[in-house]
Amino acid sequence: MIPSQVMKREFPEPITIRELCEIDDDDKFCRFDYTKRYDGVKNLEGSNLEYRIPNHQRKPEWNKKQKSELIDTIFKGFPIGSIILSERIEEDTKYYDIEDGQTRLSNIQGYFMNRYPLFEETNTYFKDLKQSEMNRFLDYKIPKIILQKCNNIDDDEHDDNIHETFERLQGGKSLADKDKIMNRIDKPIVKFVVEEIIPKYHDYDSEDYLGVRKFNMLNNRKVLPDINGIICGLCFQNEPCFEKGYLTAFKDNGNILIDKSLDNNQKTLVYDFIDWYYDMIKGCNITRDPDDTDIKINYGKFNKVLGLCVFDYIEDVTTYDEKKEMWVDIINIMKTSYNFMDTIWNGLSKGDQRNCTKSGLTKRLERIREFYNDKATISREHGIKY
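-> structure tokens emitted (386 positions)
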């Protein structure tokens, strides 16, 4: 069946670099500012710009060579490709969110602002150009494609189509799960993580066990898949997508992020687990010889201790105090036994030893419980060293 059209494209007149870099009487950019991002929620700094960088965009990460080649391309008159914009109408005024091309525009404006030279070896900044050379750079035209809503599509569906467009446009460099999740910042579960979970535990997590203290919406989003894994593991692990899928992977949990929200009981469950998890970790404080060095435990990765604790937490086999007692014992063994983590999963398949699948986590949790309840027998049976 041929898909129905859900989006229209408009091809207006190109924008020149001169227009892109227009400055007002207060020396501020009028149309676009590569230093400002707009999320439509709290960060209103870039809201009045005609061309805006939405917060789901990644921070530009081009190296010096890539930046120089872009500026060289412009001076030579070569094409740099179209920028793709989603049309937004707010209070009868049109704005455009940049869905593809923000890295190019940011680096063009960076050169205009003398942030880097054309070529390192010649050290030629924009301010060093002749007026005719400046004009040639500023008169360069950049094609635009504007994405518009079809009449038969409502606003929420159009927003979903814009998100999907952004993800499909990243063909040159695939989006990581953390970026795909951030791209859904308008969805209830992602908003809950970014606006409630992370701020709540930012100061509490003094040792940064979950990584929330280092979280930054622009360039440090790596905690998002693991916290999303907590939510999926606690609230949605019985969804069909997780029979073989990964609880932290957007390709498996994306529909949950898009279609579902958490009720108050589910939010409380998430908070209660994180509180219990922090309390358990802080109980792992064995006394050792000061010359000994503990093995570092990664508490924030869902395919490590975190996911196992999530699965243990929701199973009604022991009390929370008994669960805590078991994990304190297990983690202290992990911290002091160099061979333990290399041998505890002996006999499990490679996938079940490390994956964030429901099957893998369940089998690893079963092994931990067996070992904890009869260390001598299980160690002999599987060759576990500790």
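The chain has two domains: 7-174, 188-382.
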